[in-house]
Amino acid sequence: MEIPAEDVAPMARAVELAGRGHGTTSPNPVVGCVVLDSAGQVAGEGFHAYAGGPHAEIVALAQAGERAKGGTAYVTLEPCDHTGRTGPCSRALLDAGVARVVIAVPDPTPKAAGGAARLRAHGVEVTSGVLAERAERVNEEWLTYARLGRPHVTWKFAATLDGRSAAEDGTSQWITSPEARADVHRLRAAADAIVAGIGTVLADDPRLTARPSTPGEGPAGVSRVPGVPGIPSVPGITDIQGIQGIPSVPGLPGDRAGDHLGDHPGGLPGDHPGNHPGDHPGQHAGDRPRVRVPLRVVVDPDGRTPPSARVLDGQAPTLVAVADDARTGIETDLLPAPGRAAAPPHAPDREAGESSAPAHEVDLVRVPRRGAGLDLEALLRELAARGVVSVFLEGGPTLAGSFVGQGLVDRVVAYVAPALLGSGRAALGDAGVRTIGELPRLTFDEISQIGPDLRLIARPNPQPGREK
User: Fold this and answer.
1) Is 125 a known active-site residue?
2) 276-320 pLDDT per residue, tens
3) Which of 6, 16, 45, 57 is an active site residue?
4) Which strands, in side-by-side order, build the sheet including 318-323?
5) pTM exceeds 0.90
């Protein structure tokens, strides 16, 4: 598809705006919108900032006011055409008198889709597919969730330059630098669930909580690697600053980090209409964004999680997944106890600023076996039913190998330290690869230096028969 030159810069800006909602909109998508007036000047812009907040189109139209009439709206995701707690964004665009709407990605959800058709039926010119790849990338977690019915999975590991994640005696603290570890906590905080295996729980007794040092800010010490063009500063978010070939648009503002466009007083609250199963109870008009607490998930086929494990400490909601045929008394061990009962596992949220929040609940789910472990796709579908859109996979090589072997890893984040071990535990266990022809190939998205370490972000190459 040939993209009109005048559409590139405003849609790139919309993609950038959408990325500002990364990690705060779940279970809704990230969406950005730019509205140009009839003269081609920027009249309004916005993004969906948090679940329960106004949609990107509503924010941008409120900012544009009367200037939207006869103008063009650039939206990274097809405007919704469903009436939920708010009216459809397609209707809002029509009411504003917008003459043209440019869409990057169609909405894959049956309830919300149809906005483009409604707009066309009312005489609005609609162009689709502009910068679709960039818009898909910034919204890949939610699109995976919407299209495949399971969460998007990021596998993270830390290793030495020769690929070892632990020494021969099992010690692994600390292979990477404090800067890299701070970056991991930032990525954890952006996920809906943090997943580890029972081996890691028994060996390391991790808390699996997100403890970012500066919420909302990137890690200190991140620098671009010379000679690697187009590296985004945040995983999955395209940085449009300095990209060649993007024409300038009169009046298109630069980056304004810290703007709260989603809080525009003219906006109307409302979650993405096609995504109600994950809506958080208690969010109504006027609610403020919440501090999200990722769900902790322990993959424990035989129910060996000890009651004293720190993942059961009530600091975050926890789900222990055991095999459906496991004979274990873990149900009794996990019954609510003092300091362990509170928020339901499907609502891993805590009100911002709440200083005396009760302890979070521990829950148990039974999942079919697959080989020596669990059917991980069944587990992911169970998590999706609980409103989990994105998973951050940590832990040891065995669980990672199972996820890779079952084709369930969507992104890999590797922290590589300039150190050598020579022996010890490999970062990845058996992934079912028996010959070089079965080797899963990946494509690098980003290479960044964080302190003394490198952060490599890659994703599996598309496989025939697997929708992405």
Assistant:
1) no
2) 333 332 233 334 445 678 999 999 999 999 999 999 988 899 999
3) 57
4) 222-224, 442-450, 453-460, 411-417, 152-160, 390-393, 193-197, 295-299, 318-323, 362-367
5) no
